[in-house]
């Protein structure tokens, strides 16, 4: 393989830059040319690319966001769009593509491979919602950012003897809420994977802890459950405790990536290029049983995401 492309797609995640850096440097030092593709599949459709050299990826490992920019492309998500992107690859001499993104981006890569352009994917999203991988690049940074934000909320919540209902991101996945909830000592953690009863799981629990002397409360709600403003009203009405709702939002996507995200992204980037170099494609680099390995994209996409119910139950036991 003489020339590869690299793109980031879907929501940006801290650590994507470390992955791009590893891809570019591994390919260049293996004798390949590398094209950086701007704004994901959308940029590929319009041929928005630039030649990368060893210095193109200098001083990016510590930056959040993605130097390649990112997008969610409607046009690419059609058979004509995929064909157009494959034709563009052939026109630009791109013989393989490393795609960094979530499950949606993997589907795009599977289709591009089907259209004759070999692809390898790296899971990059703050949601940790890629079924085939125990870990996605960006998750650790987002968790730590959210913990920092909720710690700040706790200061003011405590000072006013209030309750704070905080929504964290995660799309339909409760991992971010679960781990952040444990780390901030939330009294209640609501995730889409576990149904809840308003009276029993929130009000009774708050009132029980109130009797033991607790005066302020943090409730962490996953984005997939949502409705934090309404929930805050209902809690205030039922308990008489002043309650505020906070949606952390996109701050969770920014910031300098943690050591873990930089290291995982670097290893994945290296392995992605080595797979393409050895002629393998339609693969996704994943973490399984703590190791960075690769799987077939189609198999990976068919997997179901497990939720760590055991950890959720532990959280309930200790945050009381
Ligand atoms: O996938 C990352 C994510 O931040 C999700 O947590 C969230 O649901 C979504 O992207 C937000 O998307 P947008 O950036 O388009 O508002």
From TrEMBL:
Annotated control of activity:
Allosterically activated by ADP and other diphosphonucleosides, and allosterically inhibited by phosphoenolpyruvate.
The UniProt record gives the binding positions of ATP as 11, 72-73, 102-105
Q: Which UniProt keywords apply?
A: Allosteric enzyme, ATP-binding, Cytoplasm, Glycolysis, Kinase, Magnesium, Metal-binding, Nucleotide-binding, Transferase
Cite the GO molecular-function annotations of the record.
6-phosphofructokinase activity
Give, as in the UniProt entry, the pathway in which the protein acts: Carbohydrate degradation; glycolysis; D-glyceraldehyde 3-phosphate and glycerone phosphate from D-glucose: step 3/4
Q: What is this protein called?
A: ATP-dependent 6-phosphofructokinase
Give its E.C. classification number: 2.7.1.11
Q: Where is the active site?
A: 127 (proton acceptor)
Q: What is catalyzed by this enzyme?
A: beta-D-fructose 6-phosphate + ATP = beta-D-fructose 1,6-bisphosphate + ADP + H(+)
PANTHER family cross-referenced by the UniProt entry = ATP-DEPENDENT 6-PHOSPHOFRUCTOKINASE (PTHR13697:SF4), PHOSPHOFRUCTOKINASE (PTHR13697)
The function of this protein is:
Catalyzes the phosphorylation of D-fructose 6-phosphate to fructose 1,6-bisphosphate by ATP, the first committing step of glycolysis.
The gene coding this protein? pfkA
Which family is it part of? Answer: Belongs to the phosphofructokinase type A (PFKA) family. ATP-dependent PFK group I subfamily. Prokaryotic clade 'B1' sub-subfamily.
* Subunit (UniProt): Homotetramer.
Question: Which cofactors?
Answer: Mg(2+)
Q: Which InterPro entries match?
A: ATP_PFK, ATP_PFK_prok-type, PFKA_ATP_prok, Phosphofructokinase_CS, Phosphofructokinase_dom, PKF_sf
Location of this chain's protein in the cell: Cytoplasm
- In which residues is substrate bound? 125-127, 162, 169-171, 223, 244, 250-253
Which residues are recorded as binding ADP? 21-25, 154, 211, 214-216
Q: Where does Mg(2+) bind?
A: 103
Source organism: Anaeromassilibacillus senegalensis
UniProt domain Phosphofructokinase: residue ranges: 3-276
């Amino acid at each position: 393989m003489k020339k590869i492309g690299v793109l980031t797609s879907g929501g940006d995640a801290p650590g994507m830059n470390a992955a791009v850096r590893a891809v570019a440097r591994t390919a260049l030092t293996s004798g390949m040319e590398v094209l950086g593709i701007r704004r994901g599949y959308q940029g590929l459709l319009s041929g928005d690319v630039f030649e990368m050299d060893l210095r193109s990826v200098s001083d990016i490992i510590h930056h959040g966001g993605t130097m390649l920019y990112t997008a969610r492309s409607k046009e690419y998500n059609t058979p004509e769009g995929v064909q157009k992107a494959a034709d563009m690859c052939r026109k630009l001499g791109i013989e393989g593509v490393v795609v960094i993104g979530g499950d949606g981006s993997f589907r795009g890569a599977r289709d591009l491979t089907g259209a004759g352009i070999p692809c390898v994917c790296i899971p990059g999203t703050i949601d940790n919602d890629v079924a085939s991988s125990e870990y996605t690049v960006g998750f650790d940074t987002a968790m730590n950012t959210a913990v920092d934000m909720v710690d700040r909320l706790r200061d003011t919540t405590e000072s006013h003897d209030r309750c704070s209902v905080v929504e964290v991101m995660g799309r339909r996945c409760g991992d971010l809420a679960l781990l952040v909830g444990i780390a901030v000592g939330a009294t209640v953690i609501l995730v889409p994977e576990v149904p809840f009863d308003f009276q029993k799981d929130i009000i009774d629990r708050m009132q029980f802890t109130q009797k033991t002397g607790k005066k302020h409360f943090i409730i962490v709600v996953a984005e997939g459950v949502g409705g934090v403003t309404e929930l805050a009203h209902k809690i205030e009405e039922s308990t008489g405790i002043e309650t505020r709702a906070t949606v952390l939002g996109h701050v969770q996507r920014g910031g300098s990536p943690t050591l873990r995200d930089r290291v995982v992204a670097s290893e994945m980037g290296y392995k992605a290029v080595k797979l393409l170099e050895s002629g393998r494609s339609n693969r996704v680099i994943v973490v399984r049983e703590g190791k960075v390995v690769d799987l077939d994209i189609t198999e990976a996409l068919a997997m179901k995401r497990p939720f760590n119910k055991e950890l959720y139950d532990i959280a309930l036991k200790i945050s009381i």
